[in-house]
Amino acid sequence: MKGIILAGGAGSRLYPMTLVASKQLQAVFDKPMIYYPLTTLLEAGIREIALVSTPEDLPRFKKLFGDGSRLGASFTYFEQPQPEGIPQAFLIAEPFIRGESVALILGDNIFCGITGFTEAVRDFKQGAVNFGYYVNEPERYGVIAFDASGQATDIVEKPEKFISSYVLPGFYIYDAEVVERTRALKPSKRGELEITDLSRSYMKDGKLKVKLLPRGVAWLDAGTPSAMHDAAAYIQTVEKRQGIKIGCPEEAAVEHGFVSQAQFEKMIGTLPRGEYRSYLETVVQRKLRGSK
Ligand code: DAU
Asked: Which tens digit of pLDDT belongs to each residue from 165-196?
C-alpha cells in the first residue's frame, strides 16, 4: 500500500508562527509535527510516500526528508497550489497512486498507542477503511452515525446537532477507486472537496468499514497553540516516563527492517550530537541486547 501525507493549508490558527514555516513543520515537544504522522505510516509498514503541500513549504519538506532513502523509504513531492479540500490530494497524487490502494494521513494528526493501523493496512483488500474515535467535542470533526446494531450508517462533517461521539481521525485507507470517486465529488458549502463525502460514497455502495480505535489510544490535535502545547506536554510525559520516543521515524524504519542495523548506525553518525542522536544510540544498544 502507498501512503500520502497531506501537509498543506494556510495554518492561520497558528499565526504568526506559520509566517516562517508551515504548521506541520512546527515543533511538538522535541521534533517537527510531521514526524508523528510519518512515523505512523512507517509503523504501518508503508514506505512509498507522497507528500502534498503548498508551493512555499514543499522545498522545506524536501530539505527535511530528501528522497526518503535515509529511512529506507521513497518520497515523492506534489504541490497543492490552493487548499481546495483534503481529497484533492488523491487527484494531485494520481501519478503516484497508479491504481494501487492508498492510506492518507493528515500532517497535523498525532497518534500514540496501539491503533491497529498496521493490521488494517496488512489485511486491506478493497473498498475503504476509516476509523472511529470517541471525543468530547464531536461537532469539530467528521462524525459517524451508527444504527442500533452498531453498523455505521452516515458520516457528517461538523454537524450542528449531536449525532454521536465517534468521529473520523485523519487516517484513511482507500482502494484504487479513490481517484475516480474523488473526481465525482462536488465542493461543499465551504467550497472544498470533503473527505467525509468521499467516505460516504464508499459507504453508499456498502464498501466502507469503520474500525473503532481502542480506549487508551491518544489521538492528539495540534491545530491551535494551546492544543500544540497540550500535545507536547503529553508526549514529554510519556517519553520521560518510558525513555522511549513517540514519533521517531528513524526508529520505525530500523524496527521494520526498512534500513539495516549497519545503515542505521551509519546514519546516526551523520547527526549532530544532541538528545535526538543520543536516543537513537540507545535504540542501537537495545537492539544489540536483543531486548524490545
Ligand atoms: O483531523 C480530523 C478531521 O480533519 C476530520 O474529522 C474531518 O472530517 C476532516 O474534514 C478534517 O477536519 P479539519 O477541520 O481539521 O480540516 P482542516 O481543513 O483543518 O484540514 C486538516 C489538515 O489538512 C490541515 O493540517 C491542513 C491540511 N489541508 C487541508 C485542506 C482542506 C491541506 O493540506 N489542504 C487542504 O486543501
From this structure: 999 999 999 999 999 999 999 999 989 999 99
Please count the structural domains in the chain: 2
- For ligand 1, atom 26, the nearest C-alpha belongs to 9
Cβ(172) to ligand 1 under 6 A? no
Give residue-wise pLDDT tens across range 234-275: 999 999 999 999 999 999 999 999 999 999 999 999 999 999
Sign of CA dihedral 284, 285, 291, 292: negative
Q: Does residue 153 belong to any structural domain of this protein? A: no
Cα of 106 vs centre of ligand 1, distance in Å, is 7
d(CA 46, CA 253): 10
Question: How far is CA 113 from each of CA 22, 125, 214, rounded to the nearest angstrom?
Answer: 26, 24, 9
Ligand 1 contact, 169 CB (< 6 A): yes
Q: Is the CB of 132 under 6 A from ligand 1?
A: no
**94: containing domain:** 2-130+169-247
| Distance (Å) from CA 292 to ligand 1 centroid | 35
